[in-house]
């Protein structure tokens, strides 16, 4: 969708004025004068921004989009430019994904600014299609974890407006009904699912085709990010001394167990978009557990208003409840048509002033170390872990195999019937490809 400018109207006015002046000039040659007035067309300064337009229910405010819009308007007012949106959102699993579309647009230099998922950030950066943003003033305010997650070959290639944290959304009332403690470990979680199923809840976990990888990542990297040896473990993975598949196997075996026991409907998850496959049953208290990102607890477009007590906790891991953090990020094309204005727009959109507006509107974790907002009560268990610096990064540009997108795709293979061993072979192939670059 485009926000239309007034440039076409200006061009039409220019043509009309030019016609009048041409007639006037002819009259002047016949003794009415010889001065010719030149009228210049002042074109608007345009910056093109490509981003998803999230699907929302009719008559429901899209708070996340409104928050971003406020930062865009701040940039427009301060710079006198117009930010023009181009958007795309897949209607169903048969459509091209947003990532597919954005890769094509960025590779062909079709826009100035792109809102990128973690996997496309790494792909486009490796192809040299993204500008280095480290020179922006706003870059100096970023949290260290944000910088680390978005650095490729020493370049800061993307900056987010929020740190996206994924967790398990729990119907606490249903857990209390069956005297269940909130799960800490994978074994705890499977036992909770068993009890729910024995009490008539056919499918305890609502899932879609995008977010089951959060279970895998939490279990795969709980020790890597929280064991005090992060840099050395990543270096061993990047050198081939360690295997990504060895880290991933426990999480995939856990998901296979959930599928085998019917705790997840694999066929439904494989074709379901985010929220569409699980939201209705969760709100109706037919499904006690779903997974989603932090912001989904804040607005009525997702799970922000329930008829039961909801708590958001980390995913089960060997180190207890584990938040999974990832980041979308704004990047600028290497051959952006309006590069200078795009840089200026992004610097204001990601300034502390704008991020404070964004965080207060959307009530999210800010990428800036200077911006803090209070979370809603349902998010307190998840936030407590983050404040203790206990989390797993679902995306890390310092790893030579991209994590978020690749894990998501291989989890879909599992949902579609692939064996765990077959999935591990795919990780080994990805690692071999990375080592041969």
Biggest sheet overview: 6 strands, mixed
Strand tally, please?
12
Strand content: 5-15%
Distance between the termini: 38 Å
Secondary structure tally, helices? 17
Name the helix and strand elements from N-terminus to C-terminus, one letter apiece.
Answer: HEHEHEHHEEEHHEHHHHHEEEEHHHEHH
**Average residue pLDDT:** 85
Q: What's the Cα radius of gyration?
A: 25 Å
Ranges where pLDDT stays below 50 over 5 or more residues in a row are 1-42, 55-61
* Structure classification: alpha/beta
Shape: globular
Give the proportion of residues in helices.
40-55%
Explain this structure to me?
- With 437 residues, the protein is an alpha/beta fold.
- The chain has helices spanning 7-32, 63-79, 98-107, 118-126, 144-149, 172-177, 186-198, 213-226, 230-239, 244-260, 266-271, 279-283, 339-349, 352-362, 380-387, 404-415, 420-435; strands spanning 46-51, 82-87, 113-116, 151-152, 155-156, 164-171, 205-206, 289-293, 310-313, 324-326, 329-332, 392-393.
- Strands 6, 7, 8, 9, 10 and 12 form a 6-stranded mixed β-sheet that branches.
- Helix 2 (63-79) links the parallel strand 1 (46-51) and strand 2.
- Helix 10 packs antiparallel against helix 17.
- The radius of gyration is 25 Å and the shape is globular.
- The model is unreliable at 1-42 and 55-61 (pLDDT under 50).
